[in-house]
Amino acid sequence: xxxxxxxxxxxxxxxxxxxxxxxxxxxxxxxxxxxxxxxxxxxxxxxxxxxxxxxxxxxxxxxxxxxxxxxxxxxxxxxxxxxxxxxxxxxxxxxxxxxxxxxxxxxxxxxxxxxxxxxxxxxxxxxxxxxxxxxxxxxxxxxxxxxxxxxxx
Length: 153
Prior knowledge:
6 strands; alpha/beta; Mannitol-specific EII, Chain A; single chain; 153 residues; 6-stranded mixed beta sheet
């Protein structure tokens, strides 16, 4: 599966004004529910928040990969936001997070979920790639960067 199978330009937002981890997760939830008629933003938010309670998803270098499962969803979805300013996210390296890629998988998903998370972690570990995302000014520019990433998930 290619990363572009998970995310569309409509599920990418730049320069989001979120003052907290909670607000960033709410924004991701709103983006996903706007593009998926059968999914409510509240269900997405509760799924992401439930996972955060198990352990933070801040992976370091200003990046978080919040993820969760949705029982009424039949396919894997992604959303990405770039914040105007980093927020405290309880990340492993204690750095503020400004790049968030949310991943939602069907409730039954197991191996696919773990494979995608591993590929996202690898992608975001690349310093040059993170800088290109931070320099991108539009959702289409970010989508192009994600599309050009040479790894498949």
